[in-house]
Amino acid sequence: MKKGIILVTLLSVLSGVFIIWQFKSQFNQNPNPVNQKNEALVSFINDLETDITEQENKLNALRKKLDNIEQTTTEEQSYISKLQKDLHKSKLEAGLLPVNGEGIVITVDDNKSGLKSSQDDDPNRYIIHYENILNIVSELKLANCEAISINNQRLTTKSEIRCVGNVILVNTTRLAPPFEIKAIGDTDLLKRLLLSGEYDLLKGLGFPVNHEIHNQENPISIPAYNGAFQFNYVKEGE
Questions:
Q1: Over 90: is that where the pLDDT of 119 sits?
Q2: In the chain, what are the domains?
Q3: What is the C-alpha to C-alpha distance for residues 75 and 8, in angstroms, rounded to an integer?
Q4: Which parts of the chain are coiled coil (predicted)?
Q5: Across the chain, what does the average pLDDT equal?
Q6: What does DSSP assign to residue 123?
Q7: pTM value?
Q8: Contact indicator for 129, 154 with CB cutoff of 8 Å
Q9: What pLDDT does 37 receive?
């Protein structure tokens, strides 16, 4: 009888051990789904943080590159702006831009009335010659005028005033009297210029000459030079 009780007890213990072992085995084979989700979430967060760090590094690199480009662009724009200012100044000095300012307008014409009253006299004494125009222009240049035109022909460093027969040429353009000479400069100095020199001489000889002084409120307008620059001997240096 005791042996039977012992055997039953032993079998019960073994059965309990077997059941516990089986339960643990199943637990290990089928882990908690909540833990699985947590582990997956942690892994996803770690991967996301790594990706964010990489993207931030790329963004910082792009920002640095953009800063370099902006700095280069600013320097280039500053250089281009300087070139544009230099070009504008060169065009202004060369007479390639229309200008306006205070100055004087001188008009000279042939002495037609004097020629009629002295028909037997030399007619050359009563007409305006290119030397007269040239002398007036030379005096205006000595007065440091910054822009000069004759009958709207802008004078430049390459301009010529010459005579072909009875025709006066300025910038290879034929001009006829009356001659309107515009000059932008110091009006006080230009007023004193009228009291001596070619203008006063022509006036004394009876030529119909007159002038108008223009201030900043009533400026003179002088057009740009529209001809071509021709160089026969000058070559660009190396």
A1: no
A2: 101-222 (3.30.70.1880)
A3: 99
A4: 45-72
A5: 81
A6: G
A7: 0.69
A8: no
A9: 63
